[in-house]
Amino acid sequence: MKSSIRNNHPHPEETVNDWVSQVIIRKGKRTDLPQMEWDGEFTHLRQIYANTYKRSRAGLARIWVVEFHPQVIIGQVLLQLKSIREDLADGVDRAYLFSFRIKPKFRSQGLGALLLTAAESDVQQIGFHEMTLIVSKVNERAIQFYQQHGYRITAPERGEWVYRDHNNERHKVVDPGWKMVKVLRRY
């Protein structure tokens, strides 16, 4: 797979979603990290983004972004290839998808499906055959999206995790969820 994908809209005469043909889905770069904070909404996750970028440089993670207009990030997904939780990402066969986001005003246009497909194709091409994720039990829209794209609920998750914010303060999150899994087709 190329490191970027330009979405070629199948019907250029259509104007309603014509802007979608202008997006580029590509691997994230260090210079994308500030924009992944979405004008302050996700500043508290700065260290997670930075650590994922460092892990991507070591071949242990991936970052994909949706770029609209030159250098405007409107979507993102992070992937762990290896995790301490091998049931999520074992470094060999199973990858873990997280922080999957499309900015609200760009949703319901097919960008999420394009981004998800790019992430799945990427891990398939490096030999992974399964994608896992954890989705909040109350995020019915996301659960439905993932199910429409071949993911199935396999187990409940306590949804407890800890992170350090941009001020290096420790935070504990409790958001019960569902573990979802998709078996990716083999090349």
Provide an overview of this structure.
The protein is α+β, with helices and mostly antiparallel strands and 187 residues long. It has a single domain, classed as Aminopeptidase (3-Layer(aba) Sandwich). The chain has three helices and ten strands, in the order E-E-H-E-E-E-H-E-H-E-E-E-E. Strands 1-2-3-4-5-6-10-7 form an eight-stranded mixed beta sheet, with helices on both faces. Strands 8-9 form a two-stranded antiparallel ribbon. Strand 5, helix 2 and strand 6 form a beta-alpha-beta unit. The longest helix is centred in the middle third of the chain and has 15 residues. The radius of gyration is 16 Å and the shape is globular.
Overall number of domains: 1
Query: What structural class is derived from the secondary structure elements?
Result: alpha+beta
Radius of gyration: 16 Å
- Major β-sheet annotation: 8 strands, mixed
CATH class: Alpha Beta
CATH overall fold name = Aminopeptidase
N→C terminal distance: 13 Å
Share in helix: 10-25%
Using DSSP, what is the number of strands?
10
Shape descriptor: globular
| CATH architecture annotation | 3-Layer(aba) Sandwich
User: What's the quaternary structure here?
Assistant: single chain
Average pLDDT value? 90
CATH superfamily: Gcn5-related N-acetyltransferase (GNAT)
Give, in spatial order, the strands making up the sheet with the most strands.
1-2-3-4-5-6-10-7
Pattern of helices and strands:
EEHEEEHEHEEEE
Low-confidence stretches: 8-16
Specify the number of helices: 3
β-strand amount: 25-35%
